[in-house]
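Fresh eyes needed here. Have a critical look at this protein's tokenised backbone.
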Amino acid sequence: MPLHLIILGIRGLPAAHGGFETFAERLAPYFIERGWRVTVYCQGSVSGKIVEDEWQGIHRIHIPVKRTGSAGTIEFDIKCTHDVESRDGTILTLGYNTGFLSTWLRMRGRLNLINMDGLEWKRAKYSWAPRAYLWLNERLAAWSGSTLIADHPAIADHLATRVLRSKIATIPYGSDKIVDADPSPLEALGLQPGLFFTLIARAVPENLVLEIVKAFSSKSRGVKLALLGGYDRTDPYQAMVLEAASPEVVFTGGIYDRSILSALRLHSIAYLHGHQVGGTNPSLVEALGAGNAIIAHDNVFNRWVAGDAGRYFTSIEECERQIEAIITSETLRREMREAAHCRWAEMFTWPKILAAYHELIVAEETKHTNRVE
């Protein structure tokens, strides 16, 4: 029988929700090409019953849920854990938000590698109750996972305060290299190639969207800022961003079309990144793959990812100075773009990332089999 990889923790495939789904969509075919069977659980079933099918060689199990939002996600994870008990295979859990279920899998003797994501319990968008829930589940997942995967050295250092470092593997996120993108979709957004910055982030305080918009809007610049995502004045934080924005800030709404995203990345002056919490952020890695000059908040996460491709800020005033420096210096833009390509090629290509996962999972599967025998 071929080896079997079971992926838990995502909403399903094809990818439609975030970085983990995109990663799973790349990882699953990689393992199939190397002779593995791959199973992915998908949230929701039109029939209201568990349905199994095949999609691009991947075995999918559709799990019905009655609840919505976070409660629905927890219901889905519980049902997946119950179902996976009857299926042999190596489990890869993406995220620790339901670490209590990983504890159950450990008690059942299952091999379960867990990608521990970022420091979710530190996110400012959560009240004390969700933070406490996430903090507890991080602890449970760290204890119960067979191997913990950190996507950033700083995350590995944090996890080493919970478990022995020998239990931790560090593998970052990956992205494609963007070398060509049709600029024509930009016209509909009111943008011209080489005359705009991009910012792709959830509109929450910890991502410093408001501070970046204030920095950009502090003067007329002759270039625009493309701000992706939905903004609604009924949301207090989003309302503040809308109020602070100058006429040169373009609110594009949510954009999920890959060709438009590629055009936005490739043809922008630079990418702005205010994330303060997390590990290797997928959007920042994708910016490197597009050869973007980067202006990022100065923290250990962003500095390790962007390296010399980034200019960094800790205040609105410093962010404004970095924006102005990139606008006024073609030499600086060129040097930062070259550094972005080099950093991406060094660390974040999909072949390197997927090969590292395959090597790790094969090694853990071999050790687990030997112990059982």
Q: What stands out?
A: The first helix runs from residue 19 to 33. The CA atoms of residues 210 and 365 lie 46 Å apart.
